[in-house]
Specification:
By secondary structure, the chain is an alpha+beta fold. The strands form three sheets. The protein has a 38-stranded mixed β-sheet that branches. Helix 26 (1046-1068) runs parallel beside helix 29 (1265-1274).
Length: 1439
């Protein structure tokens, strides 16, 4: 009787419990039928419909259920063995179809149904504590203890079996379906074997296992009518995985576990994505991201207070990832109501997930309570904080041993019959493989969340063929190393099972050894334990650690925020969010096969017309909620929450090989947005090129740090309302970015036939650099605060060097051209054998003539940029620039020679006279000023205020240049002609390959007819293949990015030039200019000048001086000392060129034209020659000039576009010019001219030859149009219409010339008068120039052929020389005046060095008098004629 009573009692509790759940989710059930069936021990229900609205309310997902059915539901209750056998619930074939909630529907519901739901939910939530009160021990119906424990055992051992679960999601043309053949959940023992278990002391542990078998995920495209025409390959096919659940309780009566571990293990995960699935797959990912960030499906602000209460009651709002943080926790920026609204507006997905943490484990407790109450439960399980004072620790893990993602290209194939359906054939092209994947999440309520992701190894490899190029077919017999183009980290063989450490699948973990696991839930301890080094030791390829913590500053622990009213003060919390990502040793090889596959995937991913889920919203400037209180400001000063992201890349190597085939002209236009149909594609017969030259980039370490305020809107609105915010508050209103690169180097390498790479030949030796930038958050809030910078950048480069031989640059050029120009036949460029041998010298092989290496370096480069609401400004310095040539020693014992070519800064102040060669010269100081210092400030175009003009301050120190013949040697390098690499293939291999292609391609559809993404096979006959690969037009390369046509480019360039002039004038007319350029001294030696070992490396003046004094055979050298230049705008006072940004000018220029006239000064321009035996002879004595430049503009009335006409006036005052010349100097000049002209001719010739050999010109058909256009388009319209006679003073022009100019040269006209008198009414540019030159002296020296030790000197002098040029639209006038002109003839004996005038010489001179009349200028002659007469006067150069 006792047993029967016990069974009846159990039935009275268990039956309502099961009925409540079944009745809750299933429509149209009769409880009486269900109860009768249950009493029999088995119940079978068929063809059930789910209550969709209940599911939507429970799940709170932004999806609606279109349908939900259960084919069969079985419940087996072993009434007689309830203490030893589990209750089994079996669902056979459950199918649900979901779709995304419509935005309009969501908005509509927010006013009615959502509010009603939230009311019902909140009422249920209020009912929950009431139930707890009703379940008091005084209740006489409470079951006795043993029945309670038996009920707990029954609930803990329920088995759930689902057979054939089908979930479908539809959106637009996407159909995503998930099919799980079977899933089973059951209880296990401590070795994870199926068992009937109970929670017992002292372990207090419950373990469960869920096995999923044969999970298949399909992604298909449906047409407008909703039908799927072609079924794609499944994304995931028959994948099985198992999940282990481990619950630890504090005591035997605990409702909720204190520690929950849920971990899933997959042995093999193989994803397959076709080109048609790729856009849909990316769309699904975008949906997940949008859901996660709360961008769609969030609760509307219109739900009001009830809505916010409902959101909170849904569960403890867990801060999941960083963006969710904004909606969680308490905001310390503004009033509490703002916090409430922001929380509702941005509800994320993780808070929804957290609300189910108790639901996963708390079903039994809920059911227990409902069992006690004999009634149905309502709503979701409530916040765990209401059950226990402490949140459970939840650990979720996902582990995968091996995963792969295979990309496929599809092509449709029709069957032989017309009516038979088309089939889709897919072809694998790319595979991404990962090993040892770990995703672990650890959380404890709101205060702590941590997520770690790691990969042990990752690699990507090419498969089959791409776009018809069969580069990795099986018959190619390629190495696997050739196919791998991306590899990172280690393999599982070397790492072991580290990715499973401390998981439930690790036999060494505490849970599998009967020990309670310990968790690190403290931020400081966490950072010390999980360092980057520890992460890379565990994984190897990739490690990410995301940590979010929330600490209550009032130290009251976790609080229940759901009962905080609007009036109460929300306690301030301190939140931190840190993401750390580390990428291990990374090797990327970009060869043709890899690049074409990657770009093909990008074009496929872009082939869709989906609308984005959420459009970027315009930044709203919130209305101020009143000034912030001092308490809020002090709280902000104490702590401002930020999000910090740190990325570290270790040992990165990127190799770009020469293109073995190039079909990018079909892909790049699509990627760049040109939807033009590509022409016919000619597929090359692929043959791997070996050796394959490559460029390799290596980086030892890259560090990136990015920080941003966590609550930018609230923080910025608070800080921007302060009149004088502190530096600390302003600092946190920016997003900051730090980039540091260590050990970056680049060079040439070569892939040999084995697939390995030769050691790197450095082109850019190792260097490091750093970049810092900050960007203001919510700039619209700062628009009225012009003193606050919106953007700041600082770039530092301590040292940067480039070094290369000419052969290396030719090879680099060939590698670049192989990518930028695609040959229609796809065949690669041919490279000469000797070029490759020259670049990749084998060790110990002597080259006939070692070519010099050119080396250039830049030191201490610093750039700063700052942008404000009113101005943009930049400043920077370049410490030093050096260029030199290294010539390796040709034989044994011959040291390498160093020839300096450019040196800056160099002390060139004394170099304008040859005296410096005999004076003591200080060595180049290490503390020399920076070579270049500049500051520039450009005003922003503001509508409300008139800005002053821009400012440009530039200072350039002296530069020494050595134009050495070794530079010509470097430029003129040509590889020796030899066999090209292309012909090194085995002679029989190409026909064999062709034959194989032909066999395979029989019956394949032609390329033109195929609408698919996969370019098909080659032409089907050998003859066609031969024609395709050998016909001449196909070898003409075309640019990968097509240019515009010739006519468009001409008109475009003309328009661009006009725009450029207009922009330049806008910049110049208000410009405050200060330009200082020290003298640049150019040495042109006749032979090479290597630097002696005693001289500081790269000191050019020191090298010249050493040769001048110590070397008997110093080559003849021409020294050109370019002038010092200074340019100042009107009224400007000198400022330091390097200014702190932004800076203020004492007299800013406001009106147009006030910047002019500019004052331009040139000084110390000289030319002299250095000859052997310490001889230095002057050619041009130091001279200079002062000039004034004025420019005004008039807007043309006739021109509708409002273009300007310009008036340019230039006045130049020259210092006396003194020229000397002798025979050795003429000889030196002639030799230099000869060598450089021959070099130039050879360069032009070689340049044309080189261009035609690698990249020929376009077809000649288009050529004739361009020269004709250029001659017509570049000539000015007015000059082409004038008659030739107009140049020589025709009556029309005579009438237009002002009559006041009858005198030979009128009085000097002031600039202001001249500028105002020239009215630019019809022309584009009017020019007026004036030169004033007091004296020109020319001295010619030569030895007297008749008398030994005697020299002859001819001196010609011009005094008071002035000239002016007036260029108008209708005339051009040139005037010239010479005050006096005389020629003298002297003879000198060398011993006493006394010059004597030779009066006898006049008798034999062509001109009878040595002094000519000053009345030489003929004013009535046509313009330019007087200048010609002066130029052709015969000079008595000899007796």
């Amino acid at each position: 009787m006792c047993i029967q009573d016990r069974d009846k009692m159990l039935e009275s509790y268990v039956t309502p419990l099961l009925m409540s759940y079944v009745n809750k989710y299933i429509k149209n059930l009769k409880p009486s039928d269900l109860q009768l069936s249950l009493w029999g021990g088995d119940v079978v229900l068929s063809k059930l419909d789910l209550k969709l609205d209940v599911l939507e309310q429970e799940l709170k997902l932004p999806f609606t259920f279109m349908s939900g059915h259960i084919h069969e539901l079985r419940i087996h209750v072993p009434w007689t063995k309830l203490g030893s056998e589990p209750v089994v619930i079996t669902i056979n074939t459950m199918e649900c179809i979901l779709k995304l909630k419509d935005g309009a529907q969501d908005d509509h519901e927010s006013g009615s149904s959502s509010t009603s739901r939230s009311v019902s939910d909140s009422s249920k939530a209020v009912a929950k504590p009431r139930r707890l009160q009703q379940a008091a021990p005084s209740d006489p119906d409470l079951p006795p203890g043993y029945v309670q424990s038996l009920i707990r055992r029954v609930v803990n051992n329920v088995n759930i079996v689902v057979n054939n679960l089908i979930l479908k999601y539809v959106e637009d043309d996407i159909v995503l379906s998930v099919n799980i053949t079977s899933a089973e959940c059951y209880t296990v023992d401590d070795i994870w074997e199926r068992a009937f278990m109970d929670i017992t002391a002292p372990e207090l542990v419950l373990r469960k296992v869920i096995n999923f078998s044969d999970c298949t995920v399909c992604l298909d495209k449906r047409n407008a009518s909703g039908k799927i025409e072609f079924y794609q390959d499944p994304l995931l096919y028959k994948c099985s995985f198992r999940t282990r659940l481990h619950f630890t309780y504090d005591n035997i009566n605990s409702k909720i576990p204190s520690v929950i571990k849920i971990q899933t293990m997959v042995e093999s995960l193989k994803l397959s994505i076709t080109d048609q699935q790729l856009p849909m797959f990316i769309r699904i990912l975008e949906l997940i991201i949008a859901l996660y960030y709360g961008e769609i499906g969030g609760h509307k602000e219109g739900e009001g207070e009830e809505g916010s209460g409902h959101v909170r009651e849904a569960g403890a709002i867990l801060p999941g990832m960083d963006v969710d943080m904004e909606s969680h926790g308490t905001s310390q920026y503004s009033s509490p109501d703002l916090y409430m609204l922001s929380e509702e507006a941005d509800q994320g997905w993780v808070s929804w997930a957290w609300s189910f943490v108790p639901a996963i484990v708390g079903a039994e407790e809920e059911s227990e309570e409902s069992l006690y109450q004999q009634r149905e439960t309502g709503g979701i399980p409530s916040n765990p904080q209401q059950h226990t004072p402490k949140d459970p620790i939840v650990s979720i893990g996902f582990y995968c041993t091996k995963a792969s993602v295979t990309f496929k290209l599809t092509e449709t194939q029709s069957e032989s019959s017309y009516y038979s359906p088309q089939k889709v054939k897919s072809r694998e092209v790319l595979c991404l493989e990962q090993e040892g994947i770990t995703i672990e999440v650890l959380m404890m309520g709101e205060p702590f969340f941590d997520c770690q992701i790691g990969f042990v190894g990752c690699r990507a490899l090419c498969l089959k063929g791409i776009m018809g190029v069969r580069d990795f077919e099986e018959n190619m017999h390629r190495h696997e190393e050739d196919a791998v183009f991306f590899s990172c980290g280690d393999s599982l063989n070397s790492k072991g099972m580290t990715y499973l450490t401390n998981s439930l699948f690790d036999y060494r973990s505490p849970e599998n050894n009967g020990v309670r696991a310990e968790f690190i839930l403290d931020a400081a301890n966490h950072k010390e334990t999980y360092t980057e080094i520890a992460g890379m030791q565990r994984f190897g390829a990739f490690y990410m650690d995301y940590l979010y913590t929330m600490e209550n500053s009032s130290s009251k622990g976790s609080q229940d925020f759901s009962v905080v009213s609007m009036e109460e003060v929300v306690p301030t919390v301190q939140e931190t969010s840190i993401k750390r990502l580390v990428v291990g040793p990374l090797d990327v090889r970009l060869h043709s096969s890899a690049v074409h596959r990657i770009l093909k995937m990008i074009t496929c991913a872009m082939d869709h017309e989906y609308e984005p889920y959420c459009k970027p919203q315009r930044e709203m400037v919130e209305e101020s909620h009143g000034p912030a209180t001092p308490e809020e400001i002090s709280n902000l000063e104490e702590f401002i929450p930020t999000r910090l992201t740190c990325l570290t890349l270790l040992q990165v190597s990127v190799t770009v090989s020469m293109a073995e085939f190039n079909l990018l002209h079909t892909l790049m236009p699509v990627i760049m947005g040109c939807k033009t149909a590509a022409g016919p594609v000619y597929i090359p017969v692929f043959q791997p090129v070996r050796p394959l030259p490559s460029v390799q980039f290596q980086v030892e370490r890259v560090n990136v740090e990015h920080s941003v305020p966590m609550y930018a809107p609230q923080l910025v609105s608070t800080v921007s309302s302060l009149s004088q915010p502190s530096d600390n508050l302003l600092h946190h209103c920016y997003a900051h970015l730090y980039l540091k690169v260590f050990g970056f180097q680049a060079g040439l390498t070569c892939q040999d036939s084995t697939g390995g790479f030769l050691p790197l030949i450095p082109i850019i030796p190792s260097f490091s650099t750093a970049l810092y930038g900050k960007l203001i958050q919510m700039p619209s809030c700062w628009s009225k605060r012009s003193s606050v910078p919106t953007t700041e950048c600082i770039f530092e480069l301590p040292h940067f060097t480039v070094q290369a031989t000419r052969a290396q640059t030719v090879l680099l050029q060939a590698i670049c051209q192989s990518w930028t120009h695609s040959v229609a036949s796809g065949a690669p460029l041919t490279l000469s054998e000797s070029l490759l041998n020259e670049v990749y010298k084998a060790p110990g092989v002597k080259s006939p003539g070692p070519s010099p290496t050119l080396e250039g370096s830049v030191q201490n480069l610093e750039l700063k940029f700052c942008s404000r609401a009113t101005v943009k400004c930049a400043s920077g310095t370049v410490g030093a620039v050096k260029v030199c040539a290294r010539t390796p020693g040709s034989g044994e014992g011959v040291k390498e020679k160093l020839v300096p070519l450019i040196q800056g800064p160099s002390d060139t102040k004394e170099l304008h006279m040859s005296r410096w060669l005999n004076e003591i010269r200080k060595p180049e100081s290490l503390l020399a000023p920076d070579l270049l210092a500049f500051s520039v400030q450009v005003p922003q175009q503001g509508d409300d205020c008139r800005n002053s003009g821009g400012v440009l301050l530039v200072s350039v120190q002296g530069i020494a240049v050595n134009v050495d013949p070794v530079f010509c040697t470097w430029l003129l390098y040509q590889p020796h002609k030899g066999s090209s690499r292309q012909q090194q293939q085995a002679p029989g291999s190409v026909p064999l390959a062709k034959r194989r292609e032909d066999e395979v391609s029989v019956g394949s559809t032609p390329l033109a007819k195929q609408p698919s993404n996969q370019a098909s096979d080659y032409a089907s006959s050998p003859v066609k293949t031969k024609t395709v690969t050998e016909s001449r037009p196909l070898s003409i390369p075309m640019k990968v990015m097509p240019d515009t046509t010739a006519e468009e480019s001409w008109t475009a360039s003309e328009e661009r030039m006009k725009e450029l002039i207009a922009h330049a004038w806008d910049a110049v007319k208000h410009l405050t200019l200060q330009l200082e350029v020290q003298s640049c001294c150019v040495f042109l030696p006749n032979d090479s000048l290597p630097s002696p070992s005693t001289i500081i490396c790269g000191d050019i003046p020191g090298t010249v001086r050493s040769w001048y004094h110590n070397q008997a055979s110093m080559p003849g050298t021409l020294v050109v000392c370019l002038p010092q230049i200074s340019v100042f705008s009107a009224g400007h006072k000198y400022m330091e060129p390097l200014q702190e940004l932004p800076f203020v000018v004492s007299k800013p220029i406001l009106e147009e034209g006030d910047a002019f006239p500019w004052t331009v000064s040139l000084s110390q321009f000289s030319v002299y020659t250095l000859l052997g035996q310490q001889r230095s002879l002057s050619l041009l004595e130091p001279m200079g000039c002062t000039s004034t430049l004025a420019v005004t503009s008039h807007k043309l009335q006739s021109c509708s576009e409002g273009r300007h006409s310009f008036v340019v006036c230039l006045h130049v005052d020259l210092q006396p010019i003194h020229v000397k010349c002798s025979n050795p100097q003429v000889q030196l000049l002639y030799e230099l001219l000869l060598s450089w002209s021959s070099t130039w001719a050879r360069l032009q010739r070689h340049g044309i030859l080189r261009q035609s050999s690698s990249i020929p010109e376009p077809p000649a058909g288009a050529a004739p149009s361009s020269p004709v256009r250029s001659s017509a388009g570049t000539a000015l319209p007015d000059t082409s219409t004038c008659s030739p006679s107009a140049d020589f003073g025709s009556p029309t022009e005579g009438d237009s010339v002002p009559t006041g100019d009858d005198s030979p040269f009128a009085d000097t006209v002031t600039l202001e008068q001249k500028t105002s008198s020239i009215g630019g009414t019809s022309g584009k540019v009017s020019l007026w120039m004036q030169w004033m030159l007091p004296k020109v002296t020319v001295k010619l020296f030569a030895p007297d052929p008749t008398a030994k030790k005697t020299e002859i000197c001819v001196i010609s002098e011009l005094e008071d020389l002035s000239a002016s040029v007036d260029v108008q639209d209708v005339y051009t006038k040139i005037k010239c005046k010479v005050g006096s002109f005389n020629i003298d003839h002297y003879r000198c004996r060398r011993q006493p060095r006394s010059w004597k005038a030779r009066t006898s010489s006049t008798a034999s001179c062509p001109s009878p008098t040595p002094r000519l009349s000053p009345k030489m200028s003929v004013t009535n002659s046509p313009p330019g004629l007087s200048g010609q007469r002066a130029a052709v006067l015969p000079l008595p150069l000899s007796e």
